[in-house]
Amino acid sequence: MRAAASTRLGEFGRWWLNEFLALFPASVGKWLTGGGRLSLVLVPERDAVALELIDEGRHPIASTRIPRTEDVPAAIADFLTTHGVANKDVAIGIRLPTEKMFGRKLVLPVEAARALDQVLVQDLIAKTPFRPAAIYHDYRTARTAEAGKIVVWQWLARREFVAEALAHVGLGFDRVTFVESAAGGSTDEPASRIMLGRSDRAGRPRARTAALALAASALVLSVLAAGLEFRRQEAVRNDLEQKLTAARARAGQVQDAIQKLEHKQALLLRLRAQKTERPGLLDAWEEATRLLPVHSWLSELRLAEIANTRDQQVTMTGFSAAASSLVGLIDQSPLFSDASLTAPIALDPVEQRERFALQAKLRTQQQIKRAAR
Length: 373
Prior knowledge:
alpha+beta; six-stranded mixed β-sheet; Alpha-Beta Plaits; Nucleotidyltransferase, domain 5; elongated
């Protein structure tokens, strides 16, 4: 229950913050939440260093390529100045090859969010050959449609790979904020980026302060709304009492309708039980197929009730090489009785077989059981 309440409270906080930020221009909203910062990605190549300036949504703004023979830090400063970007407004990172960054997806209980850093480190040690002292690692969380679960994307890179990339571009750790890979960034997986020293949390105090201010204002508004809600509930309660009285009357009518329905259902069950006591057309068809020899076949099979009785009569019409013997075969069946020809046997000139027409009664299930004994 505490986990569910925490999830609901988090959803309410996110909604409240989004509604508050919607009151301001987009640039102000990004400043309050620490967003909107540009990123400069350095891509080490064999004889050069590629520079890519991207926005918060990873959309490219500008790019260039610097030979390794040049002063890379000075070239970076000139590149940013050319595009009107100050050093303090851009985060500089290194893009590693895909094979040098490992990523994985975890689905964890929502209770793990309280100590997610510790949980991920323990899981990393238990399930992978990597050790925290030898790697840089970071993660992002995402919502999931499954209740009580959170999705965590975690990435890691060996420290030696990062050091090699920094040496290649000629920068120190003090200048680089993050390490990323070319992989990721799909609709399901966020961009694979590791913030060195977890410095991505540094820009969040403004958002945290804004959230606290919003929570305080929400508390004040909740107190004011509580009084109005109490008065509204009194009016609703009176209205519900009137509706409840009317509902009781309708409930009595519904009860009567249910009793009538149960009576009809019982009648239907009795009719179905009676139906199972007598074989049907499919039973007659299967039995005739079993009885007729290979030289005989039917062209017509009909089942009808005998007038003024509960008995059923089956009529068979067809061709046979020995039609006179069929009456005896039909009479031997536990399903048929009183078999007889209904028309003279005649030779059909087309089929070169004897045409026959015979009829027999269908026994009930009780009669079939007695005949089987």
